[in-house]
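User: Run a structure prediction on this.
Assistant: Running it now.
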Amino acid sequence: MNEVTVPPHYSPSGRPMSSPPPAFASNGRTGPPFTMVARVRPRFVAFAALTALAFAAAPLLAQYPGQVTEKKKDTPELRAVAVLEWTGEPGKPKMCRLVPVSIYDGDQLQDASVYMARPQPLALDSQVEYQLKQDGKTVGLFDIKNAGQEGGSWVGFGDWKGLPKPKPAMKPAKVDENDDWNADDKPVLHRRPGADGKSTSGDSSGKGSGNSGSAPDPDRPTLHRPSSDSSDSDTQQNSAGTAPVDPDRPVLKKPEEQKPVQPMDDTAHVDSVSNVTDPDRPRLIPGKPVDMGPKVTPTLVGLPADMEQTVAVSDAKNTPDHPWNFSWANPGDALKMKAQMEDIARQALGLTPPPAPAAPVKATSKHASAKKTAAPAAAPEPAPLEDEQFKVFELAYGSGATMVLTAHTQGSAAQEKFVTLIAQPDLYGNVLVLFKSVTDGSHLDETPRMRLVDAVDAMADNRGELLFELRGETQRQFALYRVLRGQATRLFVSSAGSIGTIASE
């Protein structure tokens, strides 16, 4: 029971009154205003309690860690990026290995060399297929057969396969020009003409016509029968017991003929056990065992001078190719940009010689009061750049050109200098350097040499990143750089390989 005090200007039922009710007397005294005791229904109390509990539990349900959220359809399952290193001819390598780099899980980039390792990482599981790409175009496939460790780092072994051939287009059916077509597109059953051009649905004796002794009806429809040539050929094939040869029909491997098992020799004394025919007797058979694992290309060891590198991508869903090569509107702009970047690289490497002083010129006569100005000397040839690599990418549709130049100087291993430039053209047609890395052979473990591998879409967002190999003196890593809004930012770097941790730039 709850007491509810109603104001004087309201009736006990809660309706408004024109005037407040008069105060009632008790023992001749004027009492307080009218007071009503109301009974609250139990259902109302239960409903209010449940409503308050629901509102209080709503924030707790939102924070429940096991809450299942609907996954976006455009979010990729997994996308792995690796580098195939090989020697020999493309498609037929002498030695090769697959080095895992990164795995995009839909949220961030993970290190593929340790991601879900049991014991080999997920990126090197058997029967995982990678697409080999050059400038964004698929050039082949690489199937993982098994994996192992080289110097403490996981690498994959497998086979380089070519792209599957496209299926030939089906030839359109030939149309008989002599065949009469009905004007109203109604189907018509054809009759086989006889030698005299008349219908031969039945012979003169009425056989095959269904009416013995009656002439065949010329308007009776008949089904088209095969010609005598085809029936004869089918009969010959069936009589010979052989089916027509189909070049595309798969052929199953026939089982080898097994020799009959001879009864066991029940002789008490045996001089030799070579002829024992007990099928349950264990034997040692010389030669290569059958279950030695799949045959793969020999692994690549170390970093040979003729080693090539190709980007490899494995995705749960098929995505169309995205070419990264940039097409210049004017071919002369490519040569202009390359020349400017080569000058910047020579300055960074200290290969720009000082200008030669002008040689003095003697006067032509004794009475000459002024000397002629000497002509400037010819400019020396620019110093060569070793292993120069200049590539231009369009990392997103309509994003313009992104240029990368890598080179080094001549000399011994300790005296070599290495440079890497990432640049874009500015509004005035000049080179705008976004990133520059310079190092020498004696400081590679502090500042590694950057070698461009290729551009790759590592995050499945239809935008390319630049994949570099950071090669030190005793180890190496792989790094992804994104070029956006006039800046080159490093997104990801893999763990160090066995060739000490490489310091960041």
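The longest helix spans residues 42-62.
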